[in-house]
Design goal:
single chain; 232 residues; alpha/beta; Rossmann fold; six-stranded mixed β-sheet; four-stranded antiparallel β-sheet; globular
Length: 232
């Protein structure tokens, strides 16, 4: 469904990704893991057209590199970025509705899906997101991405700064989405255990390059995983 080949990414003159290649099958959950600064968020931003890139990014065999973020959303890619990036003085409901501008015909159905996954958002629909906990804001971010009616969901660092109980709730929501709706999911995550529990296939990024990849269960005992994180 998604195929990335020899992808390079740049912030100004600084190069952040160095020939990254990976693929993601429809209905799969894959993980991008690695230490802080490895390039995980850059890869997500590169897919969404938010940084300058070279290489190839194809969705269903069609080249999408160079499309605007708005056109990428219309093509079926939803994005829940790191640290949520919500409108802090807008309500939960209005933040969710912002995500629906390309899928207005699906608003009620998608709202019901979001509320089913995260019941607390139904209870606090009028609350400004600036006054919410970090976990609730992450739920709003995921919900906003789902309001676009995505076929593939990119999730960047969903557990950063969150308590284990909230991480478990988010993991269960993502697994339900994949299991019950067939949504394809790509997760960038520094928390190895979280990613390994969700993803079937994992790619380990190290200084902007894929250091090792393979089935999640296989990589648990791979010494290259420790090397990528700890240098030995």
């Amino acid at each position: 469904m998604l195929r990335i080949e020899e992808l390079y990414a740049y912030y100004g003159m600084a190069q952040s990704l160095h020939g990254v290649s990976l693929s993601l099958a429809e209905g799969d959950i894959a993980g991008i893991i690695g230490p802080n600064g490895a390039g995980k968020s850059t890869l997500m931003d590169a897919i969404m057209g938010l940084v300058r890139t070279q290489g190839s990014i194809k969705l269903d065999g069609h080249e999408i590199r160079g499309l605007s973020p708005a056109d990428l959303v219309k093509s079926g890619i939803g994005y829940a970025p790191e640290r949520a990036h919500l409108f802090p003085y807008m309500s939960v409901r209005d933040n969710l509705l912002v995500g629906a501008y390309t899928a207005r015909a699906d608003i009620e159905r998608n709202l019901e899906l979001v509320h089913d996954l995260f019941p607390v958002l139904r209870e606090r629909w009028a609350q400004e997101t600036a006054t919410q906990s970090g976990g609730e804001r992450q739920m709003v971010s995921l919900g906003r991405a789902l309001m676009t009616s995505p076929r593939i969901l990119l999730v960047d660092e969903p557990t950063i700064g969150l308590a284990p109980r909230i991480c478990s709730a988010i993991a269960e929501a993502l697994l339900r989405l994949n299991r019950e709706t067939g949504l394809t999911i790509l997760i960038a995550e520094q928390n190895v255990n979280f990613a390994m529990e969700l993803a079937r296939h994992v790619h380990v990024l190290e200084t902007g390059r894929i250091a090792v990849e393979g089935p999640a269960q296989q990589l648990r005992s791979d010494p290259e995983l420790a090397k990528a994180y700890f240098g030995h």
